[in-house]
Design a protein that fits this description.
- The protein is an all-alpha fold and 311 residues long.
- It is 68% helix and 3% strand.
- The chain is built from eleven helices and four strands.
- The strands form two sheets. Strands 1-4 form a two-stranded parallel sheet.
- α2 packs across α10, α5 packs across α7 and α6 runs parallel beside α8.
């Protein structure tokens, strides 16, 4: 059965369970619950969880006209609620100079992705998303190589004279970005490359995280500043995406209602991450993430090219 997800409320009926649909032997609603929880855990700090959620969401999306784009649109309110939850805790640590630098190019990337998505067939969309996931996988692997295995010994901080407040150092997320950050890290051209590519990817797949991770690692932001800046930027970007989706009609009232319900599950995932992180094996989790992303990418490319090798 070929589905049409472009009619008013049609995908909302699939996502809410009003119209039955299964992924393998699992009801689609169960799959969406798992994906929302994974997204929330990723926003809460579990490495690779949100990227895995994005890859599996694209893989599990029903086959039919506009279904992949509708599945991505449903993720906007879900990620928005998860980001707002993280933002409440870390908003004071955000670096607004970095956010202001990234918002304009990200808006351009979102606009380019929006124009392209409306002109793609389902198979073309799956091929493009598969290629983007492959790019994200490559960026994740490159990011692993960028992170030093051992931290260099740091000099003990000098005590400030009595009555004077100690200024934030670059390594603590101060005004100059981070200790040892390369000169291009603060440049506009670097921010535009990250913003345009990230904005393009986020409108097609809801996955801008890997690009931002590489950017923030280059700036060498202190962890709390890293999380606060990331959560604040994502909240701004998801607000823009929400307005864009509402104006284009790809996100309507029915979709918002369903997305908000799954968003609460994502919020639960954010809170659950605080208990999961200390007990998890990061190495095992990352290996599983890379395996799932590789399979999802190959499966989508196979479907997009209609090769039939992977079913």
């Amino acid at each position: 059965m070929v589905l049409d997800c472009q009619g008013p409320g049609s995908f909302a009926q699939l996502a809410s369970g009003e119209v039955g649909y299964t992924v393998g032997s699992l009801p689609y609603t169960v799959v969406l619950v798992v994906l929302a929880f994974l997204m929330g855990m990723g926003k809460g700090g579990v490495p690779g969880s949100s990227t895995t959620s994005v890859a599996l969401n694209s893989l599990a999306a029903p086959e039919g006209r506009g279904c992949l784009d509708a599945a991505v649109a449903l993720g906007v309110p879900i990620t928005f609620l998860a980001d707002c939850t993280v933002l409440m805790k870390y908003h004071k640590a955000a670096r607004w100079d970095v956010i202001k630098r990234l918002v304009p190019p990200t808006g351009v990337g979102v606009a380019l992705g929006t124009q392209l998505m409306g002109k793609l067939s389902d198979s073309e969309a799956r091929l493009l998303v598969g290629l983007i996931i492959a790019l994200i996988l490559f960026i994740n692997l490159a990011q692993e190589m960028l992170v030093p295995k051992q931290k260099a010994p740091q000099k003990a901080p000098q005590k400030a004279p009595k009555g004077e407040k100690k200024a934030a150092t670059p390594a603590e997320g101060g005004a100059e970005g981070g200790s040892g950050a390369p000169a291009y890290a603060e440049s506009l051209w670097f921010a535009w490359v990250v913003g345009v590519v990230g904005g393009f990817a986020t409108i097609l797949t809801n996955s801008m995280g890997p690009m931002l991770n590489v950017y923030f690692l280059t700036l060498k932001l202190e962890p709390r500043v890293f999380v606060g800046t990331r959560a604040t930027l994502f909240t701004v970007v998801n607000s823009l995406k929400m307005l864009q989706r509402l104006s284009s009609g790809t996100l309507d009232a029915a979709m918002l209602k369903v997305g908000a319900a799954y968003g609460l599950i994502a919020v639960a995932g954010v809170y659950a991450s605080t208990a999961i992180i200390p007990r998890m094996s990061k190495q095992l989790f990352m290996r599983l993430e890379y395996a799932l992303m590789t399979f999802a990418s190959l499966k989508l490319i196979d479907a997009g090219l209609k090769l039939g090798y992977l079913g």
